[in-house]
Amino acid sequence: MNEAKAPKSEQTRTLILETALRLFQERGYDKTTMRAIAKEAGVSVGNAYYYFGSKEHLVQGFYDRISAEHQAAVRPVLSQETDLETRLAGVLKAWLDIAAPYHEFAAQFFKNAADPESPLSPFSPESEHAREAAIAIHREVLAGSKAKVAEELRDTLPELMWLSQMGLVLYWVFDRSEGRERSRRLAERGARLTTRGVALARFRVLRPLVRDVHELFTDFLPGMAETVAGRKKS
């Protein structure tokens, strides 16, 4: 009985999420209410809240969708390439391809996501699931490459690589170039710079600097310290 209901339940959840994303694009995040989303989706308000406790939870659903699509899209480059720069550039450009249809929506809700206290922030505790999935991709980028990485930096570097990706995302949000071509060029150059940084990190004298940079971010970015602490306990 539960198996028969599951597909319909997932269809309803997907319908609500897709309706919300469309209304966010058309009306703006702030002007879209849960009641309007429910009405447009043809479900009750209570049903909408059953699947998503708030508008913020809808955006978390969006994050999770992007994350799942990205994980699938990077399979070809990660299964075929061993060069670190090629792997990283492929991962970053795959994200740009996946996110392309949502560009206008991202620009509209960014003012909310940019607030470090907002649950929409990619650094918030609420975003931990999507954040951890993204960091896991960068961990795989490193692990499957022929680059030599010091054992003591294997946990640190993927998080710094993800932070670099967040810089790319910020640039992409405001990029108005044709086809976001400037963002794609930034992804390629960022991958090249990161690869050089990883190569330099092999030298023992530079490892404390890498750790200091990592600690700077984890200490001062909301949510990151909790994420790192939680991972060490598990």
Please work out how many helical segments DSSP would assign.
12
What's the β-strand tally?
A: 0
Distance between the termini: 35 Å
How is the main sheet built? none
Radius of gyration: 19 Å
Average pLDDT over all residues:
86
Q: Which consecutive residue ranges, at least 5 long each, have pLDDT under 50?
A: 1-5
What fraction, in percent, of the residue positions are helical?
over 70%
Task: Give the H and E element order.
Answer: HHHHHHHHHHHH
Taken from the alpha-carbon principal axes, the silhouette is elongated
Helix/strand/pairing class, anyone? mainly alpha
The percent range for strand residues is under 5%
Notes on the protein architecture:
By secondary structure, the chain is mainly alpha-helical. The chain has helices at residues 2-27, 34-41, 45-51, 55-73, 75-80, 84-99, 103-113, 128-143, 156-174, 181-200, 207-220, 224-233. Helix 1 (2-27) crosses helix 2, helix 4 (55-73) packs across helix 6 (84-99) and helix 9 (156-174) packs across helix 11 (207-220). It is elongated and about 60 Å long. The model is unreliable at 1-5 (pLDDT under 50).
Write a concise keyword list for the protein shown above.
disordered N terminus, 234 residues, 74% helix, mainly alpha, 0% strand
Concise description?
By secondary structure, the chain is mainly alpha-helical. It is built from twelve helices and no strands.
Secondary structure topology:
Blueprint: H1 2-27, H2 34-41, H3 45-51, H4 55-73, H5 75-80, H6 84-99, H7 103-113, H8 128-143, H9 156-174, H10 181-200, H11 207-220, H12 224-233
Helix pairs in contact: 1-2, 1-7, 2-3, 4-6, 4-8, 6-8, 6-10, 8-9, 9-10, 9-11, 11-12
